[in-house]
Amino acid sequence: MVNVKRCFNISELRKAAKKRLPSPIFHYIDGGADDEWTLRRNTDAFEQWEVVPSMLTGVTDVDLSTQLFGQDLALPFIISPTGMSRLFHHHKELGVARAASKANTYYGLSSMGSSTIEDVAAAAPGPKFFQIYIFRDRGLTRRFVERCIEAKYDALCVTVDTAVAGNRERDIVTGMTIPPSLTTRSLLNFAGKWSWLAGLRHNQDFTLANLDENIDPLKSGALSIFEYVNQQFDPSISWADIGWLREHWEGPLIIKGILSPEDARQAKALGATAIMISNHGGRQLDSAPAPIDCIPGIRDAIGTDLELVVDGGIRRGSHIVKALALGASACSIGRPYLYGLAAGGEPGVTQAISILEAETRRFMLLAGFDSVESLRSNAAIRRVGFVNKLSDA
Ligand SMILES: Cc1cc2nc3c(=O)[nH]c(=O)nc-3n(C[C@H](O)[C@H](O)[C@H](O)COP(=O)(O)O)c2cc1C
């Protein structure tokens, strides 16, 4: 049993997750598309930015609270939607949502989750949003929206970077494909993973819990639920579909997967309330730019009317500070909390959140900022090498 409290940073939580999980499942979390260039770049790009601290500011306490999608949050980072949390730990989405709720930050439930919209709402009273895709079967998308209204979700997030599923080659090697093609060799990786195997006694909810069993091809047994959903990604979706969605959902609408100022302007024109600058954690288009580098251009294009959430590659509090200093309203994390979940269930997620909170707080004390607002308005952030270039001139 891993003592997650001993994991003092996200990299240590990742190591603990790797140890506990059968390797096909670990690589399903950890991997990206094609050559994984974007996956690496997402984190590496933070190293191109530096923050010049202010000294003797008398800052003794840091207020990390922020507002997002109409709610007051205790933290400037939230939980991104990720599919099938049951694969990683039997606490699944409910444990993640509870941890987010205790930290008073947003939990984003994926439409590919292994827990239902209603069960998450019942388990965690904190702020939450639901992530949808605009599926070929628009009726399916509509039903999701109706269920979110009924369950009183605070916001709806539509992911637009998944015209087709990305090419994740680690999953091809391990057999974590749709349908699964686990070989004897990959199944051997489950042997000896006692803590993960013991979780099977608690529940075996390895299913896309939000899909209605009454869908025809599922009823007739013609397709597995996973094959059915995979066929539902619709490359023909366009901005008109965002307009359509807007008509059915009146609350805060977040568009996830925007990387260019032009697309951000379109989103604003169609009534989005927020944008998640995201490349799906490097799991979709390899060669897409790192989200941190997209903030200045997008903020310039949309002004202060829309909230901007930055998601991808965040592994340190310093990364959160840099994104906020560049103009993000908040950040969002995927793998950091999944490593925590995989390492130790709900307490592991709490540990991931606590690590990033403590690192962000310490950075702000060292740099002389007492609040997210003061950081956003006063931080001196610049590209690394800026000083040298000036002195060379
Ligand atoms: C295992 C896994 C599953 C994911 N599933 C979804 C999903 O169902 N819907 C979605 O919009 N994004 C999904 N994402 C992307 C995350 O929401 C987020 O954009 C990404 O993880 C952020 O990058 P990070 O992991 O470096 O923090 C997934 C990411 C991972 C790692």
What is the radius of gyration?
Answer: 21 Å
Residue windows where pLDDT falls under 50 for at least 5 positions: none
- Percentage of residues in helical conformation: 40-55%
Ligands and ions found = flavin mononucleotide
Strand count: 12
The CATH superfamily turns out to be Aldolase class I
Strand content: 5-15%
Secondary-structure element order, N to C: HHHEEEEHEHEHEHHHHHHEHEHEHEHHEH
Look at the structure and give the mean pLDDT.
94
Q: Could you say what the CATH topology is called? A: TIM Barrel
The strand line-up of the biggest sheet is 4-11-10-9-8-7-6-5
CATH class: Alpha Beta
User: What is the second-level CATH architecture?
Assistant: Alpha-Beta Barrel
List the helices and strands and how they pair.
Layout: H1 10-20, H2 23-30, H3 37-44, E1 49-52, E2 66-68, E3 71-73, E4 77-79, H4 92-102, E5 107-110, H5 117-123, E6 128-132, H6 138-150, E7 155-159, H7 169-174, H8 184-188, H9 194-198, H10 216-219, H11 225-230, H12 239-248, E8 253-258, H13 261-269, E9 274-278, H14 291-302, E10 307-311, H15 317-325, E11 330-333, H16 335-367, H17 372-378, E12 380-383, H18 386-392
Parallel strand pairs: 4-11, 5-6, 6-7, 7-8, 8-9, 9-10, 10-11
Antiparallel strand pairs: 1-12, 2-3
Helix pairs in contact: 1-16, 4-16, 13-14, 15-16
The structure holds flavin mononucleotide.
Give a description of the structure.
This protein has helices at 10-20, 23-30, 37-44, 92-102, 117-123, 138-150, 169-174, 184-188, 194-198, 216-219, 225-230, 239-248, 261-269, 291-302, 317-325, 335-367, 372-378, 386-392, and strands at residues 49-52, 66-68, 71-73, 77-79, 107-110, 128-132, 155-159, 253-258, 274-278, 307-311, 330-333, 380-383. It is built from 18 helices and twelve strands. It has an eight-stranded parallel beta sheet with strand order 4-11-10-9-8-7-6-5. Helix 6 links the parallel strand 6 (128-132) and strand 7 (155-159). The longest helix has 33 residues, at 335-367. Helix content is 44%, strand content 13%. The protein has a single domain, classed as Aldolase class I (TIM Barrel, Alpha-Beta Barrel), CATH 3.20.20.70. The termini are far apart. The chain binds flavin mononucleotide (FMN). Flavin mononucleotide binds at residues 29, 42, 80-83, 110, 112, 131, 159, 256, 278, 280-281, 283, 311-314, 333-335, 338. Flavin mononucleotide is lined by residues 29, 42, 80-83, 110, 112, 131, 159, 256, 278, 280-281, 283, 311-314, 333-335, 338.
